[in-house]
Amino acid sequence: MRIAVAKTGELISEHFGHSEGFDVFEVKDREVLSTEFISSPEHTHGAMPGFLGQQNIDILIAGGLGQGAVTKLSERGIKVISGIKGQPMEAVKKYMKGELSSSGVPCSGHENHHHDLNHDHHGGGGCGGHHGR
């Protein structure tokens, strides 16, 4: 199983569409076999779900993301766990123990998010999924 954790700096990214990249954990039998960092692709409309699909990701752990991104990731067979904060490795450990679940509403708590930086106003990725629908 491949688990990607959206990351900015050393922490889980608050905004999936603006993450610097992903810590990707190769997991088997509840044990992390390897970890690698992959940089996010150039920020274009709806690019992240396709990018993660190409990386054979099974599960995405992130802070906030829009419903459109969740839908597009789900269409690629990627399970999304959102509303998560903290260190990527700790989140993966909690997931493997069955102690991690989404905190609820996609893209909640982004009142202060700078939407001029978010080019996705139609639900294709990032935190902008709530704008056009």
Descriptors:
133 residues; Nucleotidyltransferase, domain 5; 6-stranded mixed β-sheet; 6 strands; 24% strand; globular; disordered C terminus
Question: How would you summarize what this structure contains?
Answer:
By secondary structure, the protein is α/β, with parallel strands linked by helices. The chain has three helices and six strands, in the order E-E-E-E-H-E-H-E-H. Strand 1 (2-8) and strand 2 form a beta hairpin.
Question: What features would you describe in this structure?
Answer:
This protein is an alpha/beta fold and 133 residues long. The chain has a single domain, classed as Dinitrogenase iron-molybdenum cofactor biosynthesis domain (Nucleotidyltransferase, domain 5, 2-Layer Sandwich), CATH 3.30.420. Helices cover 20% and strands 24% of the residues. Strands 1, 2, 3, 4, 5 and 6 form a 6-stranded mixed beta sheet that branches. The relative contact order is 0.23.
Reading the helices and strands in chain order gives EEEEHEHEH
Helix content: 10-25%
Total domain modules: 1
Radius of gyration: 13 Å
Mean pLDDT: 80
Shape: globular
What's the CATH topology name? Nucleotidyltransferase, domain 5
Name of the CATH superfamily? Dinitrogenase iron-molybdenum cofactor biosynthesis domain
